[in-house]
Structure formats: structure tokens, C-alpha cells
Amino acid sequence: QYSPDNVAGADGALDPTEITFPGCSCLTCAVPACSCLRHGENYSNSCIRPAHDEEGFARPVFECNAMCRCGESCPNRVVQRGLQFRLEVFKTAKKGLGLRTLQFIAKGRFVCEYAGEVLGFNEARRRIQAQTPEDSNYIIAVREHLHNGQIMETFIDPTHIGNVGRFLNHSCEPNLFMVPVRVDSMVPKLALFAATDISAGEELSYDYSGRFHNIPVTNRGPETSEEGNILKKPCYCGARTCTSFLPWDSSLFSTP
């Protein structure tokens, strides 16, 4: 079932459509007056602003929301506008279905969201453990490390209800990177932005592990075909730095 936006999962743990943020009272949103931009500007000409290397962390992104006075043309409304590019699902040689762009995409532009059912930890773990080695896994676990040491977890499953983002393949040298973007509540939209200029006809990809734009390549550990007696799936991205296997996260297989 196609859904452009996140929906509440079967466990009902989180409702992504609930509006919990207060809105700003700006007619024209700008730093520092706008309460939605208290962490700084998010976008410049519809492109996400890069994080400063010296900060050592990514600034949280909050867009203006349904309670704000500013209109639809506000420059702090990008991800919520949805798809702006013509994309195509296509059959790849070795990776099943994939997603490519039919037009040029400039570096920093929002491409698409990874949307699906928003699950709590227990339901996400139940679904992961019910999978067989032959099943494709679409469940993504995103962990945000806060300044106080806390970790916020978001689990999205587009297996049965999702959007075009579910067809994105992994690459060890991807052309997209993921940023959690919050609009109406603390439930984030998992937004994918162009990491470089992307030509028409190019396949779109991101790093399933989240390392890209997050952890330096030098911190990567050696990849093996087996981890915790689980056979890992081969990676066919074809990148020069390919690690040979798809990223693996054992946290949903273990008991808390």
C-alpha cells in the first residue's frame, strides 16, 4: 500500500500525524527571531546547509509546522512538501528493484523520504525475528545520540505500507544521505538529501549503516560474512571501497 507519509504502526506505539509542537508567530521566518530556527538556518535555496566540521555533531533540523503563522512558501518548509523530482523504480542486474532519477538533482536538495509504519522497539524486534534469511528486510533503525548521552530510536517499516524510498538500494559510496527532520512532533521524517550532484539516469542509493556523513571511514571495522551466527548478505554496489556485505545491526535480534 503506497503512502507518501509515515503512518502509525500496528502496535500503535507512536502516531506520526499527531501535532505536538507549538508554531512560530513569524510572517517571515529568519534567525534568530523564529523559534523553529533556534538551532540555526536549515536550508539555503532549498538545499540543506552542511554541518560545520568543527562542531563535531549535526544540528537538529526542525521545519515550520502546521501551527506556524508562516505560509507554504516559507523557506523552512522543504521535506514536508514531498517529492519534487521525477523518480523511477527499475529492475537492477543483481539487486532486485532499485530507484533512479529521471532528472538532474543538485547537491543538498531533498530527494525523498523513507516512509512507512512507525514502530516501537518491541514490534520492530518481533518483525525482524520473524523474518527468514530469504526475506528482504525493509525495517530501518535510526539512532540519534543527544548531547546528554541519551539515544533516541526511530523504527520505520515500509514492507507493507510505504513510499518510493523502500526501493532505494545500499551503496558503500552512496549519492544520498539521511537526516531525521522534525515537522509537527518529535517523530522524525527520515529525509534523504543529495550528497553530490546527481545526473539524470543515475541510480539513487544511501548507506544502510548510517556511517556515511556520520562516522569517518577510518573507523570502519573489518566486514565478515558471518556475525553472531547470522549469514550476512553480499553487497553488489560495485563501489571502489565496497565492504562486500550489506550492513548488519544485531540489536533487534538480542533481548534488551
From TrEMBL:
Any one GO molecular-function label of the UniProt entry = histone H3K36 dimethyltransferase activity
UniProt catalytic activity: L-lysyl(36)-[histone H3] + 2 S-adenosyl-L-methionine = N(6),N(6)-dimethyl-L-lysyl(36)-[histone H3] + 2 S-adenosyl-L-homocysteine + 2 H(+)
The subcellular location is: Chromosome; Nucleus
One Pfam annotation, family name?
A: SET
- Can you give the residue ranges of the SET domain? 85-209
Q: Name one GO biological process term.
A: methylation
Cellular component annotations (GO), alphabetically ordered: chromosome; nucleus
Principal location class: nucleus
Name the enzyme group at the top EC level.
transferase
Where's the Post-SET domain?
231-247
Q: Which stretches make up the Pre-SET domain? A: 22-82
Q: What is its EC number?
A: 2.1.1.357
Classify the source by domain of life. Eukaryota
Recorded hits in Gene3D superfamilies, A to Z, give: SET domain
Alphabetized UniProt keyword annotations: Chromatin regulator, Chromosome, Metal-binding, Methyltransferase, Nucleus, S-adenosyl-L-methionine, Transferase, Zinc
What name has this protein been given in UniProt?
Histone-lysine N-methyltransferase SETMAR
Organism for this UniProt entry: Nothocercus nigrocapillus
Its lineage reads:
Eukaryota, Metazoa, Chordata, Craniata, Vertebrata
